Amino acid sequence: MRGWLRAVPGLVLLSLLCLGILLAPWLSPYDPLQPDPAAGLMPPSSKHLLGTDALGRDMLSRLLYGARYSLFLPLLATIASVATLLGFTGTVTGMIQAFEAIAAAGSVTPQTVSSGIAQALITTAAGLFIAIPTIIFYNYFVYRADRYVQTLEHYLHEFLKARPS
Prior knowledge:
Blueprint: H1 2-22, H2 24-27, H3 59-105, H4 110-162
Helix pairs in contact: 1-3, 3-4
């Protein structure tokens, strides 16, 4: 029981982090993409809790939105994988249906196999129509999340370097 109690603070922190990420559009004090050159490289303050980057974008807003991308990326990857697999499964079941129709009829005619082949083609196309755009969006968001992480790491390094010893 004691080990479980030690996990509670971590669970609470993780829950708050996930809640903050999901509520990023309402919690972000500024637009994470809107530059403000006059506010470039500001240190943390009451106006910008984590400071600003070289273009004057609020780092807290960028952190929340970057984490939001990272939270939804596994969902996109799962959708792309499952859609492809469902399309392949439909192909296999359609071909099974076509071969069963051949076995039942005893001969091969276009009418015998057409419904099974149609099912195979339709499910393959449906799987691809879902998977291809999802993979494109996934790769785009991975790129965006990587850029957020690189930016945050750079400014964290600059912040730590500028801190008085």
